[in-house]
Amino acid sequence: xxxxxxxxxxxxxxxxxxxxxxxxxxxxxxxxxxxxxxxxxxxxxxxxxxxxxxxxxxxxxxxxxxxxxxxxxxxxxxxxxxxxxxxxxxxxxxxxxxxxxxxxxxxxxxxxxxxxxxxxxxxxxxxxxxxxxxxxxxxxxxxxxxxxxxxxxxxxxxxxxxxxxxxxxxxxxxxxxxxxxxxxxxxxxxxxxxxxxxxxxxxxxxxxxxxxxxxxxxxxxxxxxxxxxxxxxxxxxxxxxxxxxxxxxxxxxxxxxxxxxxxxxxxxxxxxxxxxxxxxxxxxxxxxxxxxxxxxxxxxxxxxxxxxxxxxxxxxxxxxxxxxxxxxxxxxxxxxxxxxxxxxxxxxxxxxxxxxxxxxxxxxxxxxxxxxxxxxxxxxxxxxxxxxxxxxxxxxxxxxxxxxxxxxxxxxxxxxxxxxxxxxxxxxxxxxxxxxxxxxxxxxxxxxxxxxxxxxxxxxxxxxxxxxxxxxxxxxxxxxxxxxxxxxxxxxxxxxx
Length: 497
Known about the structure:
Elements: H1 4-10, H2 17-46, H3 68-72, H4 80-94, H5 98-108, H6 110-126, H7 128-151, H8 154-165, H9 171-179, H10 181-199, H11 204-224, H12 237-247, H13 261-265, H14 268-298, H15 303-333, H16 339-362, H17 368-382, H18 392-396, H19 401-426, H20 432-456, H21 488-493
């Protein structure tokens, strides 16, 4: 029962605390992505373009009103291969802290695991200009690795928080909101970076701005958000009662056995999920990391337009992820679709749509309007990944959702190391023909990984969600939990004492 200051503070919030948490989770990923991808735009102005062996064959003509600054870029003589290494170096650190982040979030709660990771990324973003001016490409690579180490805890910690706060019947909707921060972060990262680079001399302002926003988020998040409903000092009694009814528990069960790694790594639905994550991340990282370079080097968009046109695909992706999240929840809660079928359907749409449209964009030549339209449609379809495979770890094991997200996102993030480097190697002359091969490879990866996911995926709670009860009952994974009901939902995710 709330009393005194707790009651007074709770009256200031007109939305439930689980929605407040979801909004701050959205902003966490938004900040993480702006800090991660800001270099993708900035590097087009940091590199001296006249120092590369640029060939006009297979490259679109530059706009007649393109200024000399847009033609020549900056002061660093980094070739395409080195740029690929720089852009991929973030993920060298990113993949390392996924598993530790998931385990820490499950053991101690997601609040500090998430917030301290974002804070460290913000710090290294702020000192990026100083490091580059001091040590050039080597210092930049080191800073990017350190940023990745900090940001690697983001998705595992958020999954642990969502598993503690979000009832099953709201999972697709609020999960899509939270994970949609990636698209909005990419939109704002591209737009604001383009604006700052066009209007302010030098490229340092990009890193100062986004690093500062990360610090501001940390302060607000630590004031208003908590790891679970039980530890929240000013959550309303009404919301507490609702969450207890829907979820069966308001706090983490500290008596749970250690993470059942053997069961996880031998689980067919889990391995299918990992495969889908690889396909999603390959396509997404190709677009996030290298689309601004494609727009600059091949399509010859000036920097003030590059940020705008590179961001449009993610605006549609964000809208689609939110709308299909609501649609998915409605289809499941009304019994029109099982969880398993829904996850497979939306993942298939998110694989096939982008595969066809990005290849189509490579055959659109120098028709800039058509290229932008096709890339925008490609990323729009990719938005259905979020009510599809992205929330699937919460289905399989609410108790170990942080570890599952750590495994899937960590393995998938390896493509973030490979993809930019492969693109750098395959596009030495950054011509349309070279990029077309890159997009055909993405086409094949999208379809191959989706087939594996459809064959092995599941939306059922797995027996290893409660390893201490596996020998007592296998009822947890029964198909009765595919359709939500007032009685089955708490039992599906409740940790038995």
